Amino acid sequence: MKLEAQIHVLAGAFASQQLAYAHLLDEAQARGLSPDFDHVEVLTGDPGRRLAHYFAAPLAAELARAARGDTLVLVLPGALITGAFAESALLRDLGRHPGTVTRAPLA
What we know:
This protein has 107 residues and is of the alpha+beta class. The chain has helices at residues 17-31, 48-51, 57-67, and strands spanning 2-12, 40-43, 71-75, 92-102.
């Protein structure tokens, strides 16, 4: 089932997904956040196809351009109960954008 959601998008230059997740964990610990990384997507390389799963085509293209080749981090609903990730020395905040997330229907 597709649900409408606000998705927080960040970008940064990371050599791998693992390094991006490590930085997010460091930032979470420094800010007192308790993230559920099952609700965080890290997109490396050409993000176009994966962005299309979350955003309408024009917005996906805009976000890909705004990333300027950097890794994109999508903080999906449910990633944080309180608080939010913020810009850091390695992350730029690209804002919160309307999108959709896929969730299994409750039986």
